[in-house]
């Protein structure tokens, strides 16, 4: 038993709760190493996900375990980090408690909210079932199932109109994800599947990329955008720009006034931030992102930080910091520095500044575009740089080797090895 004076000397550690084990949250925990605080990381999933390669799971190039890692495993050697698998449903800012779906409440002294965003359907939530988006591993395996089942059902279909609709894939939104999905589905249909089907000609597959704006990859320079469009067209993708989708049904999509019969529609358009602003009663922008101060803390509570896709931060030129992985990582690293400085009673670091490293997107397995600002690259060399950059950013040697090997195999053999229909497995269930 401790003597009273020993008890008085017991140091109560500062409690930092980080919600979200995505790019921002993981980087925060990484940066807090050596801070002497007690860190609790909460996520509703047990894995950290490398979202930039999610489309490769959806299009049968990679397996789920190649792009996701158990969060608990990442911190097995960090005794200062406790991992909780649960969903946050609210924050009591007065009592300084994070409320969980399970009913538990986790106390904090400092809170970092890094819960990301999901796709938004511009007020047409009924479209979600018909045109699923891509954000989680479940989304990716659902899309993979739908894509593969469309070919299977076309093979059995006796009516030409049905077969044609089954062999038409519409992708809505021509940002990097839409472009990457369209290019890879086209390659699957043109190069991988033809020898395996007997009744259908998979090279007759139509992949339509629909963009309401004037061009694909709007965040890239105009010449790279034009290159991406022509590279997609070479792969057989039909690019339709300048008209929005006005309706989606089980029979197809309507683009402007034109109806396109198709059975597989994929959503790669808007995003909506997680409800952090509601939890902490803070001001949000139009996409629901919490507006934070120059040190990324909430305007009304310096002990709460909001980072990544769920935060609204302005750059020096007034433009918002983009919702991409490097931005979330930079914010996570910055917030860790701010917290460490506070704990050590040191002066606060200068306000957060985002450094844009560049924009990258691939078109199929042999071309990519890279926009580093002054340096712009396209074609085969860009594809190799894109591949190396993504391998570098994966976690751990095993994943890097596994992905590098999978890509090399696909590059040399033309085969996609992750072509599994999982979850609901029968054609009947899906119909
Ligand atoms: C398909 C796709 C492709 C992309 N491609 C690229 C790319 O090529 N390059 C690039 O830079 N960026 C890309 N991005 C964007 C990039 O992935 C995000 O900007 C980045 O993940 C944001 O990091 P974050 O930490 O804010 O959120 P996330 O990485 O999304 O992490 C949020 C975490 O919070 C957890 N969470 C959410 N709500 C709760 C809750 N209520 N309770 C508990 N946990 C919760 C989630 O499970 C998740 O683990 C892509 C995104 C997608 C979806």
What does this entry look like structurally?
This protein is α/β, with parallel strands linked by helices and 431 residues long. It is built from 14 helices and 25 strands. It has helices spanning 4-9, 23-31, 54-58, 71-74, 127-130, 137-156, 160-166, 176-192, 222-234, 276-280, 325-343, 380-393, 397-413, 427-430, and strands spanning 15-19, 38-43, 47-49, 68-70, 81-85, 88-92, 97-100, 105-107, 110-113, 117-119, 168-172, 206-211, 237-241, 245-248, 252-255, 258-261, 264-267, 271-273, 290-291, 297-298, 301-306, 311-312, 359-363, 367-371, 376-379. The strands form eight sheets. A six-stranded mixed sheet has the order 5-2-1-9-21-20, with helices on one face. A four-stranded parallel sheet has the order 13-12-11-17. A three-stranded antiparallel sheet has the order 6-7-8. Helix 2 packs parallel to helix 11 (325-343) and helix 6 packs antiparallel against helix 7. The longest helix has 20 residues, at 137-156. The relative contact order is 0.15. It binds flavin-adenine dinucleotide. Residues 19-25, 42-45, 51-52, 54-55, 87-88, 114-116, 134-135, 176-177, 274, 308-310, 323-326, 328 line the site of flavin-adenine dinucleotide.
